[in-house]
Amino acid sequence: MTDLHDSLLPAELTDLARRVIVENAAAGRRVSVAESCTGGLVSAALTEIAGSSDVFDRGFVTYSNEAKQELLGVSPDIIDTFGAVSIACVWAMAQGALKHSLADVSVAISGIAGPGGGSREKPVGTVVFARAIRGEDDSNSEEKHFEPGTRAQVRLQAALVALELLLP
């Protein structure tokens, strides 16, 4: 396993990533992620763990709306109607991550990390998540409102929630 002192990532992130790898390995599941506002932070945390290649299939960093559409198959109508920071969008992202991977479970994240870009309806710190499991119609999706501290703080909190969603 990775020595936490050698990691550039916060210990709480690598500790949770280790649990995701160990528990999904025990469950025989492979995982994928579709990230927007976290920009690859969840993927980085997972690949920080030795043995992650047995569990982590792939990560999609789809920061732009075009990337969400091209790489994950998110409909432009979803983005036009609900926005990129919406349950509908992350649900489509999570489904796209499953479709374009060998994973059994995927998680998608999109949000407004700040310091700008927020609105009255979707203030800075708004992050939405969805988990999809291959072969199941049910999903786990949620919207969180993190304190709009620094951009790094919002991204870290979002990555932690995403990793929790990947636990069996």
Automatic annotation (TrEMBL):
<feature type="domain" description="CinA C-terminal">
    <location>
        <begin position="15"/>
        <end position="167"/>
    </location>
</feature>
<dbReference type="Pfam" id="PF02464">
    <property type="entry name" value="CinA"/>
</dbReference>
<protein>
    <submittedName>
        <fullName>CinA family protein</fullName>
    </submittedName>
</protein>
<dbReference type="InterPro" id="IPR008136">
    <property type="entry name" value="CinA_C"/>
</dbReference>
<dbReference type="InterPro" id="IPR036653">
    <property type="entry name" value="CinA-like_C"/>
</dbReference>
